[in-house]
Write a structure and sequence with these properties.
single chain, 1 helix, 38% helix, 69 residues, 6% strand, mainly alpha
Length: 69
């Protein structure tokens, strides 16, 4: 005799793949937030160059120029 299907078997919160998807999504959002916060905390010292294009240096500067007083 066949067993009747359970009424609660198809509910969304009973699906483990959905919980895995939610966990991966939340972890990726937390990772993105952590990367943004870590990047905002670190200083980005400008290079001593003579010419820039859209704010990007076109030539390599002296790597020891920042160490000089």
């Amino acid at each position: 005799m066949p067993v009747p299907p359970s009424k609660s078997g198809g509910r969304w919160y009973h699906q483990p793949i959905l919980w895995l998807g939610i966990a991966v999504f939340v972890a990726s959002m937390l990772g993105c937030t952590w990367i943004i916060v870590a990047g905002a905390r670190s200083a980005d010292t400008p290079l001593q160059t003579s010419r820039t294009v859209f704010g990007v240096p076109t030539t390599a500067g002296d790597p020891h120029a920042a160490d000089r007083p």
